[in-house]
Design brief:
InterPro entries: RibonucZ/Hydroxyglut_hydro. This protein has about 80 residues and is an alpha/beta fold. Helices cover about 35% and strands about 30% of the residues. Strands 2-1-3-4 form a four-stranded parallel beta sheet. Helix 1 runs parallel beside helix 3.
Length: about 80
Amino acid sequence: MILNVTRPNGDRIPFHLTTDDAISILKKVKPEVAVITHIGYKMHLKGAEEERLYIQDSTGIKTLIADEGLKIYMNGQLSYQETVK
């Protein structure tokens, strides 16, 4: 599941997903993997990696941050290749 999570936990504004919203959605849908994208300025300030871990730890769902070069394959079985930093 790909989610546009623009805001960190506790920093809600109208019509923007927060990490808490993402957690709520993921707990209901229960996808194999979650990819957060459209990371906003506030997410960068608070720490996108920490927010990713918060989502992953809260849901038990592998959570990735979309990054240039991230490849997701869905050929009957889901697999992904993260970029090397």
